[in-house]
Structure formats: C-alpha cells, structure tokens
Amino acid sequence: MNDSERIVITGIGLASPNGNNLDEFRANLLAGVSGVEKYTIRHVGETLAGVCHFDPLKYQKRKDLRTGTRAGSIAVYTANEAVRDARLDWPGLDKTRVGVFLGITEHGNVETENEIHQLSQFNYDIKYWSHYHNPRTVANNPAGEVTINLGITGPHYTIGAACAAGNLGCIQGLQQLLLGEVDVALSGGVSESIHTFGIFASFKSQGALAEHADPTKASRPFDLKRNGIVIAEGGGVFVMERLSDAKRRDAKIYGEIAGYSVMSDATDFVLPNPERQAQCMQHAIRRAKLEPRDIHLVNTHATGTKMGDIQECQAIRTVFGPDCVNTYYNNTKGYIGHAMGAAGVLELAGNLPAFYDNIVHPAINVDELDPECALPNLVLNHPRRVDRVDTILNNSFGMVGINSVLVVRRYVP
Fold first, then answer.
1. Residues assigned a catalytic role
2. Are 16 and 52 spatial neighbours (Cβ–Cβ below 8 Å)?
3. Would you say 372 and 302 are in contact if contact means Cβ atoms under 8 Å apart?
4. Fold type of domain 3-248
5. Are domains 3-248 and 259-409 of this chain identical in fold?
6. What are the CA-CA distances from residue 246 to residues 7, 9, 26, 86, 353 (Å)?
7. Bridge partners of 190?
8. What does the pLDDT read at residue 249?
C-alpha cells in the first residue's frame, strides 16, 4: 500500500463531559474523573446526564447560538479545535477540497420540542413559530453549520447511524479520501441528546435509564448492579488526510486507520445480536490484514444495560480466543455516560494516546464484576501499563441493529 492509500489522523477536537481537549480528557480518564452530574429537564424532572461545559463563544457569536443548534455548536467547536490541533495552513487551503462528515444519532428533536413548548406559551398560534425551524432541523445541519463557520465549500453531510454514528463519520471521511473526492476530511460525530426530554422518557419507560445516589457512579458498564444508560452530549472531530499529504507538511500523526466494518443485525429494533457484532469485528480485523491476536486494545461499546453488556462480551469471546493473551479491554462510558452519535469518536480519541504511553485507561465503577461480563485482561478501576499498544479496535453498536467497528494502528513510517 502506498502513502496515498494510507489514511491517518492528524488533528483531534473534542467536547466531552469530563474534558474539552484531548489532554484534559485523557488525564481525567487516567485519574478516574467522571463528568456525570445531576440534571433537570422538562417533563422528566431531575435525572442524571453527561453535560459538556465548553465555551461556545470561542468560535461563534451569540447570534449564531440563537439561530443555530446545540449539535451545530458542538460541531463548530470541535471542528475548529481539530483544525487548530492539526496545524493546517487554513487560509491557504483550497476549501473545495475539504469535506465534513459527521455522524449523528438523531437531529431536530431538541429544536422541535423546544419550539412546540414555546408555541404553547402563545396558545399554539403558529405566527409565533420560529422561521429558523427548517434549517435547524434538516439532517445535514451540524455538518452544514461547520461549513458556514469555517468557509468550507467541499461536500458536507451527516450520517444517521444511531450510536454507531461516530465511527461511521470516520469511515465516510476515509472513503472520500480514498476516492480522491477531498484532501482533508473533518470526520467524527456529535450528540445533543440531553436537550430532548423524549430520549430520557423513552429510556425510562424501557427501564433502561440509570439511577444512582452519586451521579459519578451511575454509569457502570459490566458492574453486577448496573441499571441502565446515562445519556450524554458531546462531540469529536478528527482531521483525516492521506499519509502522503500529511508527510508533505510534516504533520503530527495520532494513528492510521487500518480497517473498518459496517454491518446490520437485521433482527430487532433494540436488542443487539452478538453473532452479528462478532462478524463485524472479524470483518474489520480481516480488512486490516490482521489476526485477532494482533489487536492489543479493544474499546468496548458497553452502555450499562443488563443484556447489552452481556451480549457484547459474548461477541468478544467469539472473536478473541484464548491465544489473544496480549489483548486488553476497557470502556469509556463510565466516565461520561453514553454520548450517542459522538460515543465512537470520543472513545477512540481517549484511547489513541495509549499508542505512545502504553497505558490502558480502565472501566470504572465496577464494584462487583458481573460474571457474564468477565473477559481476560479486562482493565477495571485502575489504569494498567502494558508492554505495547500497536492496534486499537473500537466498537460502536446502535439501535435498529447498526454495527460499526474501526481498527486503528500506531503509525509506523
């Protein structure tokens, strides 16, 4: 494979409940710092959520925040941070050769709920309906807001893929680079989910909304007493380039996309299918021209639901047999909750520094490991230094049976 066929990550921008840049996020993952807090939302009341506290005015004006969306604001912040981190010659860059590809879980629910609530204050007289409703709720909005903010005239769109969407944004960026459609891809995912009461109400009606007296301990994948999902907002954007272009400008390289897979369960709206999840992992590993034993770190998708965690562990056992003695497993949702469309890219970002420090951040809040979630080399509660991390496999699985897996390897010239 020549350098024009190798796709690398050269910039990272993120906003998470426990960090608004990679250094802060990584430090809090290693220190066990949670970003989950008490949260109150209309019709549901007091609950728990992962809330981002980035400064939206760093890259936008107050008018932009009034007329735009929360997902768009997260996208604008993280895209600008990624561009700065990549040290691109932005003024000199041909903006027709830049693309924006962002995964989302859903979009428009927040704005529609809020606008209906506001309309109710005027006895539902539609003359008070916001004329910003349509541009706020079109599905391409978050990516579109980035193009307006940064003056990007290349392609932009969002990829609706439920909780697998963050990985899908990266996969789309990779494919567009390989096709030669763009030279720079701003790829990743965003989520504004905590601002819609509907998602809280729906998970609550399913008995899948986490509860705990201590908010920081509510998100607890793999723990025997886990009781559901903590909903989170957030976003992550990668600058992705062909290796030949990255080398030409002597860019810092965080990692190289080695393989990927997107597959469907085709079985149920909500319940995951471990056989299909296993197939998706296997396909991504084969595409990377690796064997399971070559994977050093698996970031699990596990959300803290009873059956979801168990079924993913079943899938992992199918793929990674007893000879995978150097494969370690961790989880990131215990720190930030489930950031939905942003989950995959945020979780991958938090693990990329392991290529250089060989430290695996742990799954936290596991007081008593569920025996059905036991995995060899599952890193729990305390970081673990390992001999080497050359390859990371990142799982993201979503509702209506959408599965995505990314394999990233440490860049070796």
1. 163, 301, 338
2. yes
3. no
4. Peroxisomal Thiolase; Chain A, domain 1 (3.40.47)
5. yes
6. 9, 9, 24, 10, 19
7. 104, 235
8. 96
Considering only CA atoms, give the Rg of the chain.
20
DSSP string, 330-384: E-SHHHH-B-GGGHHHHHHHHHTTHHHH-EEPPB---SSB-GGG--TTB-BSS-E
pLDDT in tens, 389-413: 999 999 999 999 999 999 999 999 8
C-alpha triplet 51, 233, 284: angle, nearest 5°? 135
* The two structure tokens encoding residue 361: 């951040």
**Of the candidates 158, 148, 299, 152, the residue with the CA atom closest to the CA atom of residue 235:** 158
Task: Give the start-to-end residue ranges of the domains of the chain.
Answer: 3-248, 259-409
- Tell me, what's the pLDDT at 278? 98
Bridge partners, residue 405, by sequence: 261, 395
CB atoms within 10 A of CB 97: 15
SS3 208: coil
Report, in this order, helix, strand and coil percent for the chain, each rounded to 5. 40, 25, 35
For 259-409, CATH gives: 3.40.47.10
At 108 the pLDDT is 85
Q: What is the pLDDT of residues 98-133, one digit of tens each?
A: 999 999 998 888 989 989 999 999 999 999 898 898
The structure tokens 């025997």 sit at: 224
Give the angle subtended at the CA of 18 by the CAs of 408 and 228, to the nearest 5°: 85
Dihedral of the CA atoms 340, 346, 351, 355 (nearest 10)?
140
